[in-house]
Amino acid sequence: MVSLSEKIRNLPDHPGVYLFKDAKGKVLYIGKALSLRKRVPSHFRDSPSYSERIAALISQIADLDFILTDSELEALILESNLIKERRPKYNVVLRDDKHYPFLKLDPKEPFPRVSVARRIKDDGALYYGPYVPAGTMWDTLFLINKAFPLRKCKSLKGRKLCLDYHLGRCLGPCEGLVSPEEYGEVVKRVRLILEGRDRELVKLLERQMRETAERLEFERAAQLRDQVQALKQTIEGQKIISAKGEDQDVLGFAQKGKEGCVQLFVIRGGRLIGRESFAFEEVAEKGKAAFLSSFIKQLYLAKTSLPKEVLIPFPVEDQGLIEEWLSARAGRKVSLTVPQRGKRAELVEMAMHNAEEMLNQSLRSSEGRERALQELREFLGMSRLPRRIEAYDISNISGNLAVGSLVVFADGAPKRSDYRRYRIKTVLGADDYAMLREVLGRRFRRQEEMPLPDIILIDGGRGQLNAALKVAQDLHISRVTMISLAKEDEEVFHPSQIRPLPIPAGSRAKHLLQQIRDESHRFALAYHRKLRGRSQLHSILDEIPGIGERRRRILLTHFGSLERLQEASVEDLRRVGRIPAPLAQAVHDYLRAYSP
After folding, report:
1. Global pTM?
2. What pLDDT is attached to residue 18?
């Protein structure tokens, strides 16, 4: 039996596709090469830039197979088809095409109809799509069935005139009431819709409507008028992107750690007619160009209607080769462009923003939160999922107006009803450790108000964690896992570990801990700012003659901040503070003149 290393040494200097397999013969990864002899060995050279995913792939390779092709372009096409068929674990694999339907029109039939297809077959029919999202396909099909009288039945054999004929939605080919030539004219118009040339069709129908009206064929003119109105309603519901009427696909990409999202905007005739998001759980941190290249090849493998231009956020691997492939499939030039300025760059930026938002939604979803909790449980070696997590932070300026915050996350999401704010009462000076001990002590002594959490997260390093552990020990709190998260290196300090634990890069556990820590910091800082504002406001009111303690308290309670008080009218001050008009005017003038 030939060994793997021997197979690699004897690879031909020829274009082709290679398949890495594990010990059981399962395909792990499929790649293409201009030269198999040069490309395949490069996978096995040690490199510090290799991600954990690539290292895991290499460790499992036990065998390889290859297929020779006549050119690198043929290798690219074969690679894409094999990935679609074999769905290897370490390739970028799109979800099954059944999620993205097509519309099918078979011109070989004497009286074609438009139908929904889940897969493309090599049967000579025309397939339009895939439609993303699927709702755009149903809208298009509804428009065609409503405005253009094609047959709806699957077969003409044994059929008689149905309700669609009597409603004017079918020309009656089952009874021979229409010639193939006349029927073919309707098919041509439907194809214009399917190809995204609906504005061109509107102009054609409007011209025909005028001509038939001039010939006094008013019934036919009314039918054309209804078709024009239906088309215009559909067009008006589409977002106008450009008045030039371009056919473009726009791709945006976002990545956080290992997870990524691609956003696709479909623009036809200058109008946004569809969009879709594609989520991926494993994206190499330093391989964006290779990832997006693989995505593009799979995306357009099944598409029959190709745009003239694909806008992408950055150059991708095999860009020229992909352009050559797409152009050959379309029968015209198809370009992959990275716009630098202008309207096209704005479109890519919009797609990038949408991709980032969709990725954030995925991270915040219930499924995403559950995965984050599972990762956190494994990372901390806990026996159960940390359903309730409390985080604490201290905010002060040189010990002045010191406050503490408690935020709670339940099942990975904020539970704001359990948030608490603490005004530091027993600590003098800037002693963050003592302040933290006071806050935790007050929290633990009132356990009847809230259940103990599974994890307590402290903002800080080893010193803050030790302060929290001392409080827990003194109050005999033992069922809670305590950790701290240092902001500088994003490391976790754990009581049982001497050295800090680096959180796996790109993990959902890391994202969740950072989110909770940042929320506790935000909540503490907001309270501290509020107290500073009230303190400043209190001191200002002390300086105004005629404002005593009672009126000062009323104004503080009602307005709450210096900004709101400065915006108040004389009448507001007089009414709220119950003070005479001359004094209200004096207060108003003083506040307007005050500048902190």
Report:
1. 0.54
2. 92
| Neighbour-count burial of 340, counting CB atoms closer than 10 A to its CB (0-12 exposed, 13-18 middle, 19+ buried) | exposed
pLDDT, the chain, mean = 80
Domain 380-530 belongs in CATH node 3.30.420.340: yes
Q: For 427-482, write each residue's pLDDT tens digit.
A: 766 677 888 888 888 888 877 778 889 999 988 888 889 988 988 888 888 788 99
Give pLDDT tens digits for 356-397: 888 877 766 677 788 889 888 988 888 889 999 999 888 765
> What are 536-552's pLDDT values in tens digits?
445 566 666 667 777 77
Match domain 4-91 to its CATH number in 3.30.565.10, 3.90.180.10, 3.40.1440.10, 2.60.120.10.
Answer: 3.40.1440.10
Sequence-separated (6 or more) residues with CB below 8 Å from residue 122: none
* CATH architecture assigned to 248-364: 2-Layer Sandwich (3.30)
Amino acid letter, 79 = E
3-state secondary structure of 11: coil
CA separation (Å) from 558 to 538, 552, 562, 564, 577? 13, 10, 11, 9, 9
On the question of a common fold for 248-364 and 380-530, the answer reads yes
For the chain, domain boundaries:
4-91, 98-240, 248-364, 380-530, 543-593
C-alpha dist (Å) from residue 393 to 12, 373, 409, 487: 63, 22, 15, 12
Which residues have CB under 8 Å from 417's CB, separation 6+?
Answer: none
| CA nearest neighbour of 461 among 503, 490, 438, 429 | 490
125: closest CA among 156, 104, 153, 102? 104
% helix, strand, coil for the chain, step of 5: 45, 20, 35
Residue found under tokens 């105004």: 544
- At residue 456, the 3 state secondary structure works out as strand
Partner residues linked to 277 by β-bridges: 263
Between 333 and 148, whose confidence is greater? 333
Question: Which of the following CATH numbers is that of domain 543-593: 3.40.1010.10, 1.10.10.10, 1.10.150.290, 1.10.150.20?
Answer: 1.10.150.20
Q: What is the pLDDT of residues 556-595, one digit of tens each?
A: 677 766 567 777 888 887 887 777 888 878 777 776 665 4
User: Is residue 183 classed as helix, strand or coil in its secondary structure?
Assistant: helix
Q: Residue 437 region, left (φ>0) first, then alpha (ψ -120 to 50), else beta?
A: alpha
The three-state DSSP-derived secondary structure of 41-73 is: HHCCCCCCCCCHHHHHHHHHCCEEEEEECCCHH
